[in-house]
């Protein structure tokens, strides 16, 4: 355990587990996983503000120093807000994972719901996109969204539960729909791993934890704070996937900045039977090589090419035209005075 002295020179720090902080007889313990700074060896040289920020992140409070060398206010806003959002996001994923596990038959329609909410994006006008407008009755009732009401109803129920424990306001449908797609995809990835393990769930989950793509969701998870549209997106922006030709599908994907590769990897989002969809897509010479590539990838233990490309594509799709509010779902921290801390 390394003692930390407060010196005037600012430096980047990483406090060791349960590092002891000392300042004129004042000591407090912090856990290393509550913050991330750089290592300075056995002696760490934090500024006073550094320490207040770290302590604020550790206890989830705003620290108000009122006397002596700590006569300043440190809000630790960025660290506290990140922690608040991360904890809320984790709870959302748990809720959605449970709901989807209990209604796994709705996975195909949840994926189409997320795709169709996002595919209203118009590159020329920068309008539409994954803004939750598909929840509105004029839009969910359109022909291209036929059969998606049950999945939307499931998410409405999940939203009620999520809103009941949210401390930073209700979750937007725009966020909810995209995170439901994430949970649905993870379920398909895990199910595939279980199948490769002869149906043994514990071994399949372990296989996915070791070789799967769970660590590839970082950028997707940071895009958290979409706002809901108050009106339906314009009609005519999405084809009926079950009636569209491959050429029409390609043209739509190209219109939003994608191509044959992204069309192929998104095959699970285009209909209830992925293999049948891929067979149809393979009739196009531009799409066929990518379909075959991802089919080969799904036969491997890790499915790396398929899963990574699919996550990358969904991450881009799920933010088209959206201004992310990176302070969404945060809330004012409690305030404490250092003089009242029991140290």
TrEMBL record:
CDD domains membership: plant_peroxidase_like
Instruction: Please tell me whether the keyword Ubl conjugation is annotated for this protein.
Output: no
Q: Please give the Pfam families that the UniProt record associates with this protein.
A: peroxidase (PF00141)
Keywords assigned by UniProt? Answer: Oxidoreductase
Q: Which residues form the Plant heme peroxidase family profile domain?
A: 93-267
**Superkingdom, taxonomy of origin:** Eukaryota
Q: Which GO terms describe its molecular function?
A: heme binding; peroxidase activity
**One GO biological process term:** hydrogen peroxide catabolic process
The family note in this entry says:
Belongs to the peroxidase family.
What protein is this chain from?
Plant heme peroxidase family profile domain-containing protein
Which species is the source of this protein? Zingiber officinale
